[in-house]
């Protein structure tokens, strides 16, 4: 295979994920019981034989930097391979945060020049999917394309949230020439969405972004560069037929975790060798999970260091989670080192790391589905969020579609019961 250099866009925060991205970029959000979201694109690159990777990071990137390290967990260590973290830098005449995706590449042209390559792949670090990029690279080269875009079919009713392409039938189910591209249209007429997987002819991209910089134009691939290239360059679409999770909203994040729980093997994750950094959060040093006598675990994913004395059903428990006797956890996602006190009940709860739920608490148990009053578009389906390291007092009751901020101590809770739809302050 020809030489392909990859840049992973991993610097952004997604407001729609609320407290889960207050202290980390979306790419570093925990996923699936053992992983972080960025593990999936990094594993795709590893399995596709793309071994030189730059990661463009910006927002609260310390957790991402700690997790990726030097890339050893994905076998990106060697003379001609490696991972380089690329935060914004102060230059002699200018310094700024990345103004957008193309500006992030523009600020790292030196990195591109230091690593000769035939193709430049730019992809999002915050999507969950399995994909061998090799066939896409071959298709790109066969078509002598200036740009090839990975596309996935999405339902028409939700397509307005994506960049959408119209492709001809030049190559049938494989792909074709993109003849029109619109970014997040109000009234979609196409349903093939950009996966934010771009494969460029490097010299073409460099010329375009230098021109963009000289003209002072805006800085997004989908909104600015891609529509311009469709009009003037050879731009192709490559159809991806497998699973792809956008996970931009709380509902999508919860659903994609449940998909992973229910259908991981069917979706190809079990066969694709998804890797993670087992030194992060001391994963490799934790003991095996312990399921106590009288405990019940059904349809759930339980990982290293968990201790279960109560009941867990259709839930994902990250390493170090404890569920005490008489406690019940259903349809929930508990990040590392969450503890659930005796006789507590959690239903459709996403709890960030080191949350402590006191004994006899009831979280998410209510028939009231009032949307969150502060963020009705964010939480309306019954999921309750608990921020990092909050300590919920004994016997507290919190309804559905609620948000508990991070780092709250028991004495902060002035009420013993909070109805559905509340943002605690």
Known CATH architecture of the largest domain: Alpha-Beta Complex
Number of distinct beta strands: 32
Question: What is the overall shape?
Answer: globular
Helix % is 10-25%
| Number of separate domains | 2
Report the end-to-end length measured between terminal Cα atoms.
55 Å
Mean pLDDT: 91
- Sheet with the most strands? 7 strands, parallel
Class from secondary-structure proportions: alpha/beta
List keywords for this structure.
Spore Coat Polysaccharide Biosynthesis Protein SpsA, Chain A; 425 residues; 8 helices; 7-stranded parallel sheet; UDP N-Acetylglucosamine Acyltransferase, domain 1; 2 domains; alpha/beta; 6-stranded parallel sheet
Describe what this molecule looks like in 3D:
By secondary structure, this protein is an alpha/beta fold. It folds into two domains: 4-263, Spore Coat Polysaccharide Biosynthesis Protein SpsA, Chain A (Alpha-Beta Complex), CATH 3.90.550.10; 286-418, Hexapeptide repeat proteins (UDP N-Acetylglucosamine Acyltransferase, domain 1), CATH 2.160.10.10. The protein is built from eight helices and 32 strands. It has helices at residues 39-47, 62-68, 101-106, 109-114, 134-142, 202-215, 221-232, 250-263, and strands at 4-9, 30-31, 35-36, 52-56, 82-86, 119-124, 128-129, 147-153, 163-167, 175-183, 192-200, 235-240, 244-245, 290-291, 296-298, 301-302, 307-308, 311-313, 316-317, 322-323, 328-330, 333-334, 339-340, 345-347, 349-351, 356-357, 362-363, 384-386, 391-392, 397-398, 403-404, 417-418. Strands 15-18-21-24-27-30-32 form a seven-stranded parallel sheet, with no helix packed on it. A hairpin with a 7-residue loop joins strand 9 and strand 10. The relative contact order is 0.12.
């Amino acid at each position: 295979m020809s030489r392909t250099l990859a840049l992973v866009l991993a610097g952004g925060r997604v407001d729609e994920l609320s407290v889960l991205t207050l202290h980390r970029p979306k790419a570093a959000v925990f996923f699936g019981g053992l992983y972080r979201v960025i593990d999936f694109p990094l594993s795709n690159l590893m399995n596709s034989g793309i071994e030189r990777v730059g990661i463009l990071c910006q927002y609260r990137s310390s957790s991402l930097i700690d997790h990726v390290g030097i890339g050893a967990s994905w076998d990106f260590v060697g003379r001609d391979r490696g991972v380089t973290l690329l935060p914004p830098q102060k230059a002699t005449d200018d310094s700024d945060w990345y103004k957008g995706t193309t500006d992030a590449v523009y600020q790292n042209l030196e990195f591109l020049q230091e690593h000769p390559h035939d193709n430049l792949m730019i992809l999002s670090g915050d999507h969950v999917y399995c994909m061998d990029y090799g066939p896409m690279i071959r298709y790109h080269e066969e078509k002598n394309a200036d740009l090839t875009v990975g596309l996935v079919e999405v339902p028409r009713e939700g397509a307005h949230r994506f960049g959408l392409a119209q492709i001809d039938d030049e190559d049938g189910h494989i792909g074709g020439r993109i003849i029109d591209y619109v970014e997040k249209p109000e009234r979609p007429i196409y349903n093939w969405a950009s996966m934010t997987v771009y494969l460029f002819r490097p010299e073409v991209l460099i010329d375009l972004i230098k021109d963009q910089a000289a003209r002072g134009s805006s800085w997004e691939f989908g909104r600015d560069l891609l529509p311009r290239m469709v009009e003037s360059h050879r731009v192709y679409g490559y159809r991806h037929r497998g699973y792809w999770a956008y996970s931009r909203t709380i509902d999508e994040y919860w659903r994609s975790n449940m998909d992973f729980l229910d259908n991981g093997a069917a979706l190809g994750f079990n066969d694709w060798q998804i890797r993670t950094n087992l030194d992060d959060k001391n994963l490799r040093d934790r003991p095996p999970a312990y399921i106590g006598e009288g405990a019940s675990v059904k349809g759930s994913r339980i990982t290293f260091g968990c201790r279960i004395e109560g009941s867990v059903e259709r839930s994902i428990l990250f390493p170090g989670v404890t569920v005490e006797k008489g406690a019940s956890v259903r349809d929930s996602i508990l990040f590392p080192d969450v503890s659930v006190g005796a006789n507590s009940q959690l239903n459709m709860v996403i709890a960030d790391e080191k949350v402590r739920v006191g004994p006899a608490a009831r979280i998410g148990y209510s028939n009231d589905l009032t949307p969150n009053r502060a963020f009705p578009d964010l939480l309306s389906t019954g999921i309750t969020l608990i921020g990092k390291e909050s300590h919920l007092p004994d016997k507290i009751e919190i309804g559905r579609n609620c948000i508990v901020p991070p780092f709250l101590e028991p004495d902060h809770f002035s009420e013993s019961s909070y109805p559905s739809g509340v943002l605690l302050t």
